[in-house]
Amino acid sequence: MRFSFIVTAYNIEEYIGSCLDSLTPCLRPGDQLIVVDDGSGDCSCEEIMARLAPLEGRGIELCPIFLGANTQGGVGIPANVALAEVRGEALFFVDGDDLLEAGGFMAARQVYEAHPSDLLIANFRVYDAALDRYMPPADQPLWARVPGARDPEARRHLALQMIGVPWRKIYRVAFLRAAGLCFPEGDFFYEDNPFHWQACLAAGEIRFLDRSVCAHRVARAGQTMAAQGAELTAFFDHYETILSLLPDAQYRPDALRWLLENMAWHIERLDPGAHWVYAMRAQEVLAAVPEADWQALRRDPVALRSWGVARALAAGDLAAVISGWQGQAVMRRLADLEGRLAHLSGEMDRQQQTLGGVQDWAEGQRALQEFRALKALAGERQVDETG
Fold it and tell me: What pLDDT does residue 355 have?
């Protein structure tokens, strides 16, 4: 069976070479490799061509595409450009800063070739670049439910609860084309979420394989997943898009669960400067959620992570919610400063007699002053909230 691979890249010269090297053992003669660069301003294009050169003459169709200028939004336009070039029977997406795990991918390929389906959803690992550590994804517990999801609808509901990234799935190309599936295009990011819902809702057969097919890199500079500002309101746009795709009301709680799960992630990282913009957009969307959808998730542990905040926003209690967010931001800052102070204290003890020690001492004094100011602010906020 001929596989097509789509790799998307934008300003990732440090990572794209390793990504393509990890993909090489997964290629067979007859496969197609499409690499789309979305107008990088660094040397990503040169890295791409250097890594493709050794693949010449191996019977692999190479299709590098250089868009020349960065397109609007995120991966939507470059992914759709690549989809138009697909010639294989099966399709696999690759994030240009990730690493394929050849053993897991080839196992997934073997399973898929033996039992083709519209979608095969595999597992993956998360690589935290800041901690230099591999971790399971947040949806890891869902794999325990796979054996019990025996009928197509149960498998569809389970698939909709999994993290909706395209680079963990093998797609049947004829299915994608028959359903007319493509990524949404616009001035927003996280386009893979509506695409995931489109694919899962349209698929006739969904299979699962609990093998890691790639290591997904997080916590690198410039990564979309590192967003903390108003761009996170795109999730409310995508929620509305997802609602418009639903064939009937039975999937509405699934859609709300997806939104609440992502909101829990947003709330932990949202920049204070984006609090009001995010809260107002959330209130606009959540106020329209039927009570039946809320009640369907009343005991769902994932939804409950942001349930209280979401209900307060839906009711219009924006000021109270934002006050709570601001207090949490202060406490996170305090925790960060405590860690810095502990580190600097140790350094000052070791280097007190050197110039470096003097610099560390000065930095420690600045951190201490900031810590005291924030602690005082946190105390005032606590008095205001309890008084």
Answer: 46
